[in-house]
Write a structure and sequence with these properties.
Blueprint: H1 5-22, E1 37-41, E2 56-60, E3 62-71, E4 79-81, E5 87-90, E6 99-108, E7 113-115, E8 118-121, E9 127-129, E10 131-134, E11 140-141, E12 147-151, H2 158-163, E13 165-169, E14 175-181, E15 184-189, E16 198-203, E17 209-211, E18 214-216, E19 220-226, E20 230-235, E21 240-245, E22 248-254, E23 270-273, E24 276-285, E25 290-300, E26 307-310, E27 328-330, H3 332-341, E28 347-351, H4 370-374
Parallel strand pairs: 9-18, 11-19, 20-28, 26-27
Antiparallel strand pairs: 1-2, 2-5, 3-6, 4-5, 6-7, 6-8, 10-12, 12-15, 13-16, 14-15, 16-19, 17-18, 20-21, 21-22, 23-28, 24-25, 25-26
Pathway: Glycan biosynthesis; Cell wall biogenesis; peptidoglycan biosynthesis
Keywords: Acyltransferase, Cell shape, Cell wall biogenesis/degradation, Lipoprotein, Peptidoglycan synthesis, Signal, Transferase
Organism: Saccharopolyspora dendranthemae
Length: 379
Amino acid sequence: MRLPWRVLLGALAAVLLISSCSGQPQGQPEPAPPVAAVHFEPGAGAGEVSPTAPIKATVDQGRFESVQLTNADGKAVAGQLSPDGKSWQATEALGYGKDYTWSGQASGADGKKAPVQGSFRTVQPKKTVRATVNPTDDAQVGVAMPISVKFDEPVKDKAAAERALSVQASTPVEGSWAWLSDKQVDYRPKEYWPANTHVTVKADLYGVSYGNGSYGLADLTSDFDIGRAQIVKAAVGTHQMVVMRDGKQVASYPASYGEEYDPGRNTPNGTYIVMQKNPVEIMDNPRYGYHDVRKTFAARFSNHGEFIHENQENAAALGKVNNSHGCVNLSAADAKAYYDSALLGDPVEVTGSASAMEPRYDVYDWILTWDQWKAKSAL
């Protein structure tokens, strides 16, 4: 059966009408996307991000109406939006092994909105390493006191750790860090600290990669003071122990140093520091057959075993004969006077001995020459 031409023309007109109502008019372009372009640092989807890396969002051809970075618990990260609204930067360190998500909205120069969206993940350390710093806050120490940063685990990337350390002194000094082991780095000035100097140490170790998957656990700081300049001049041949304070002699105590003709009993040449003070010290030396010997007013200046201490039993030799086992013997009264005047970190300069101390016993920082010391820096 044939349909009339009138019916066919009507059906075609209906199809064209439906097409024109439901689609984009032919020849018309798609709507332009928003011109505002949001960028992230680190990039969206990044992993293994350092928690102390710069965390930033910026927008081209527009500004942020809102922007936020949150952790997996929904807590917002503290940050600062620039005055022109074109950038936002985190102002706090992030956590280890955490997911962070961007949210918000940017408004473009064309008036269109663009979403702020993306995420990244921070690095998960195999191990976090604790560190300590000495001297501690509010300490008052002698002019030869080094700054010592000690780590719980060996540090492979010493340069990275050292770059995170800084020292500021109220009286500027020339100084350097030196690695004394894989777990200890010390700082000392080229010359003794100036008296009455205030020192600030910053160890920005959180987020620092030490290598082998180990990272710094926390930042450290210390503020301490250098006291008066007191120096012991221990010239063994004089049988006297001279105390200099701020450039003037304040005491000369009759002393007995180590036996000069037995290398095992010498008081070795070297520059040491007072590293410990004990009102009573129990001493042992199996090689020379004595045990549990009680001496008072003992100031240790080497972990090799040397002290300045009372030895009233050796009074006949004080000022006359060197017959100790390496320590500096003083009378009870003189030992107490010196002990009461000493600060940890005061230098003890031993000269005129038949032997010198090897640089292997704490604290040997001042036994090394300045060039030897600087050579131990990782930078």
